[in-house]
Amino acid sequence: MSQQEHIGPSTEELVVEAREALRDRTRRRAARLGDHFKREWQIYVLLLPTILWFALFLYKPMYGLQIAFKDYSIFRGIDGSPWIGFEHFRTLFENDQFLRAIRNTVIISFFTLLFGFPAPIILALMFNEILNQTYKRAAQTIVYLPHFISTVIIAGIVITAFSPSAGIVNTVLEWLGMDPVYFLTKPEWFRPIFIGSGIWQEAGFQSIVYLAAIAGVNPSLYESAVVDGASRWQMVWKVTLPSILPTIIIMLIIRIGNLLEVGFELIILLYQPATYETADVINTFIYRQGLQQGQYDLAAAAGLFNAVVAFVLVMTANTISKRVSRTSLW
Amino acid sequence: MTRKNTTRFGRETMRKSTLSAAFLATTMLAQPGFADEHLRIVEEPLELTVHFHWPRNQGYEEDYPVEQAAREMTGIHLKDATAGRNTPDHNEAMNLLLAQGDLPDIVGGNRIKDPVNQYGPEGAFLPLGDLIAEHAPNIQAVLDAKPELRDAMASWDGNIYYVPYLPDGEFGRAWFVRQDWLDALGLERPDTVEDLYQVLVAFRDQDPNGNGEQDEIPIFLRHWEELIRFVTLWDGRSTGSDTYHDFYVDNGEVKHPYATEGYREGIKNIAKWYEEGLIDPEVFTRGTSAREYLLSENLGGITHDWFASTAGYNESLQEKVPGFDFAPMLPPESISGTRIEEHRRTPLKPDGWAISYANENPVETIKYFDFWFTEEGRRLSNFGVEGEHYELVDGEPVFTDAVLTADQPVNSQMWEIGAGIPRGYYMDYAYELQWTSDAAREGIELYEQNDLLIDQFLGVSLNEEEQAVYDRYWPSIQTYMLERQQAWILGTGDIEADWDEYMAQLDKRGLSDVLEVMNSAYERQYDS
Amino acid sequence: MSGVSLERIVKRYGALEVVHGIDLEIAPKEFVVLVGPSGCGKSTTLRMIAGLEEISGGTCRIGDRVVNRVAPKDRDVAMVFQNYALYPHLSVADNIAFGLRIRRTPKAEIASSVEEVAGILGLTPYLDRRPADLSGGQRQRVAMGRAIVRHPEVFLFDEPLSNLDAKLRTQMRAEIKRLHKRLGVTSVYVTHDQVEAMTLADRIVVMRDGRIEQIGTPMELFNDPVNTFVAGFIGSPPMNQFEAVVEAGERGPVAVANGARIALPALESLRHAQGRKVIIGIRPEHASIEPMPGASTVPVELDLIETLGSEALLHSSIGEVPFVIKAETGGDTAHLARVEAFHVAPERIKVFDHDTGRVLGAARMGVAA
After folding, report:
1. What are the Cα distances from residue B474, in Å, to B154, B428, B511?
2. What are the structural domain ranges in chain A?
3. pTM
4. In this complex, which of C73, C87, C90 lies closest to A227 when CB atoms are compared?
5. Chain-chain contact of A289 with B472 (C-beta, under 8 angstroms)
6. Which of A70, A73, A75 to mutate to test the interface with B (most CBs of B within 10 A)?
7. Chain A closest CA to B486's CA: distance in Å?
8. Same domain for C241 and C228
9. What ranges do the domains of chain B cover?
10. Cβ atoms of residues B181 and B141 within 8 Å
11. Which range is the signal sequence, renumbered to this chain (chain A) (predicted)?
C-alpha cells in the first residue's frame, strides 16, 4: 500500500477531488440554470397558470385520498380522523356485491371498448367517403347531436324506445310477429342496451378526431394509390386506416385508461334492482354504498382501487403499444 | 283545534288559558305599536348568519317579505351564509359547510337531522334541551304535548340538536279508483282483497273505457315502490316511515318489513297479479309521468297517490275524458280483515335548524327559534305577511284572493316570500286546506272517519359503533332485498321456492346485526 | 414503349382556365421536361396525363389510345411524387410492392421484381426498413422503385427532387438520367429548376401562364431562345437583358445603351431599324474580359466578384443597368478586380423586340419533333 501512496494520489485525495469536482459541477449547473431562468423567464411565467391549475385541482385533492385509509368524519376533518389501514379495502373485498360490481365493470368496459371503440372510426371512414359536401355536413351534424343531449334525456329516450307498450323496438318486434320484451328489467338485455345507447350518443362526436386525422393524410398517398390502381375500398384499407393508426392507438390508450370509468350516470338512470346483477358497476356501487349513505371513506377506497386498476391498465397498454406499434402516449 | 295551544304568554298562562281566550287576547293585543314590541328579543338589531340549503332555493334571501316582517317583530336579522349554493344536493352542501369548519350561527334547511345528530355530539352543534326549557316556552309546549317527537328528534347521546319543521295534517297518499269505470261495469267499490281482484280483472277484460281494445291498465303507479305498499293487503308492510324500504316497529321491536311472512305472502300475490296483467307491465320504468299519461289517455284504473294532486285530475281532465271520476276510496280490507293506510304525513321532518358551536348569542337565537312557534310567528311562517298575503277573518287567517287565484300554486307562492320553507316551524294544516280541491277534501274526510293510521317509525339516532355496524351491512342487504323483490314480481324468481335461501342470505349479510343495533338505539331513544 | 400526345389540352376550374390548349408530342423513350415558374400549369398538365385531373378539353393519347376517360390505373403510367408518397406503415419492400399487390400479381413474381428493382436502385440493404428510417435520397429512390417495378409505358415525375438538398439533388439527377438510359421508358418530368431541365431532358418544354413558350433540346433553348422569357429562364446565371436603341454603325447595326455602343449581328430585321427600341441579350458566358477581334468593347463598373473556383461571376453595371460577366479565374482573382470593360462578338448577341419580347432575326422557333 505504501508504494501505491507514492505512485499516485491517495484514496482520500481522490475522494476529495471527486467531491470538489462534483461541487464545482453542481455550482456550474446551478449557475447555468439561473442564467437559463433569467433568460427565459417569460416562458416560465406563461407556464405558471397551468402548473397552478394542476397543483390546485389535481395534486392538492390527492391529499384527500388518504381518507381511504382512515375512519373519516367530515367534522373532524382529514387530519383529525384516525388511521385504520386497509380496513375499508377489506370491507369492500368481503362484499360479494363489490366483487360483482368489479366483474360487471370489467365486462361492460370490455364490450364498450370492443364495440364502442371501432364505431367512431367506421363512422369517420364512412363520412370521408361522402362526396356531396352538403349531405356530409348534414349527416355529421345529425350524428353529433346526441352528444349534446343531457344524460337524463338520453335515459328518457332509451326507456321510451324500449318500452313494451309504446317503444319503437317492441313495435318492430310485434310487426315481426314476436312477443314484446320488457327489456329494461331483463338482466341479459341491460348490457347491450347500455353499450348500444352509449355508442349512439358518442360515436358521432368521437368521430371528429378521426375525421381530423383523415384530413391530415397526405393527399399524394391517395393519388399514388390511384395511379397504382387501388380501389376505394383498398384505399380505405391500405391508405386511410394505416395512416390514422397512430391516432387510433393514442385514442385506444386513452380509452383503456378510462376503461373502468363507466358512464355511471346513465346506469343509475337505466338500472333497476332487477338488473343490478348485470348493471351494477363500481361507480354505481360507490354511489349507493358511499355517497348515499355518507360513507366517504369507503367510497374513497373503492375509487382508489378503481384508479389503481385504471393506472395499471393504461401503463400496460402504453408499453404494449410502444413495443408493437412505436406509438405511445409518453 | 287543540293544537293551537301555544301563546306568547309563556307556560304559566298557557296552562290556564283556554284556546278561545288565547285567541281573544291575540286579537286584542295585535294593535300597532304594542304588537310590534311584545315579540322583540333584542333592543339593538342583532345579525345572525345562517346556512339554509333547501330544494327550491339554495339559500336564505334577506328580502323575503316574511324575513322582513320577522326582523321588525324580533329585531333579529338573518344573514345568508349558505355553503354550496351552486349545488342542488343538500348533502353535498352540508358536507361543504362542515368541511370548511367555519360554521355560521345557524345551520338549517333540508334534511339536517342526520348530520346535526351525528356532529352535534362531536361538538359542532349546541344541545338545545336546556336552552329550550329556559328560553323557548312555545317550543317546550309542543315537545311536552308530543313527547314521542322529542324522542324521535334526539341524538344517540339523548340531546336534541335541532328545532324541527313539524308538518300538520295526517293523510298523504290514498287509494283512488275510476268510479266512472265501476259504474260503467256495474261494480261496487272494492272493499276486500277479493273484491279488488274482481274489479281489476273486470277492468282488464271488460273494456271499461269503451274503446273496444283491451288496453286498460288496472293498477298504475308513479313510483314503483308504491306497488310494494300493496303487501299491506296481505298483512305485510313495505315501510315504517315516509321513506321507502324503511324499518318499522312491531310491538316495540324494530323489524324490517322485507323479512316478514306478510311480505312473503304479499309479494307472492303481487307477482301473480303482475303475471296476470293486473299491474302496469311497465311499472318499473314508466316513472313520474305515469299518472298524467295513463289518466289523460283514459287507460289507468286504480292508483295509490297523494290526495290533493291526484284529485286535481277530476277537474283538469273533464274535457279530455268526459265523465272522468277518479274517486278516493278506502283501502280494501286485508285478508285478516284489517284496514290500514300505511302512508301518512310524518309528524316530524328531518328539516329545521340548529345552533352551531360558533354562535355567540345562543339565548337570543333560541328565543328567535321560539318566535316561529308563537301565534304570530306560526302564522307568518304558514301564511306570509298579514294584510299582504292573508287577512284575519274571525281570528282565522285566510289567504287573500290574489294568492288563491294566482296562476302559481299557493305553496310555490309561499316559498317565494319565505313562508313554508324548511325552517324550524309548525305547519298549520289550515293553510293547505284552503286550496285543497273539494274532491280531495271529501276523501280526506272519508279517511278521517275511519281509523286507518298506524304508528310511524320516526327513526333512531345511532351512536358511532352502531353506525359502523349499520354502514357495514345495511347497504348490501338493501341492495339484495330490492334485487330479489323485483325478480319475484317480474317472475324471474319464485318467492316460495327462494324464501328460505333469501332469509339465509339476509342473515349471512348481517341483518340480525343491523336489527340488533337498531333495537338497542330504539330502546335508548324511546324508552327513556 | 409508347409515346404521349397532347392535342389542344385545356384545363378549367369552373370559369377559370389554367391550361390553354397545349399541343405536345412526346416520342417513345423520350425524356421530356416541363419547366416553368410555379403556377405555369406544368404540374396540372402532368396530372392530366396521369389521370389525377380531369381533362377539360382536347385529347390526350398514350400510345395510340385516347385516355381522356380512362381511369389512372388503366393508363399504364407510374408517377413519382414530390413528397415521395411513401406509406409510412410499410417497409421499403412493401412500399415497392404496393402497386403489384393491388394488381394481385403472384407472390413469387412480386418478390423477384422487388429484388430486381432494389438492386437497380441500391436499396437491397434497406428493404426491411420503414420510410421514417431512410434518408431523403433513399426515400426518393424507393418512390422511384415503386414506379419502376410496375414496368409502365410512361413515367411521370412531379418535382421529385425539390425536397432534397443541393448535393443530393445533383446526385439523384444523375441517377435518374442513368436509369432512363438503362430502362428507356418514356418520361415526363416536371420541375421549376432549369438546371434539372437542362441536365435531364432530351427536350425541354418551357411553360408560362398555361401556355408553351418554347420546345426544344437544351442546347436549342440555350442558344436560340425564342423570347426574353425563355432567355431569362434557361441558363445560369441567366442571360443579361437591357434596353437599347438601334443605330446604324460603320459595319452594320449598333445598339446604344447608356452611352455604350455594341455592334449587333447583321440581321435582316435590323437593317433599316435606326431608332428602334430593342432588348439586347448577352449571356454571361459570352461576355469576355479579353479583347477579341471584331468584338465590341463595353465599359462597365465592377461591383462585386463572386468566386466559384475555376470561374467567377463579375457583378457589374453598364451605367444603371446591372450586368453579370462569367470569367475564367485561372486560379487567381486579382486580375479580375481590374476589369473595366467586357468584349462581346456580334454573333453572340440576341436582339429581342422591345414590346413583344420575341427574338429578332434567324432564331428558329421551337418545332415539335
Report:
1. 22, 36, 7
2. 2-69, 87-325
3. 0.73
4. C73
5. no
6. A75
7. 5
8. no
9. 31-169+351-427, 173-329, 464-527
10. no
11. none
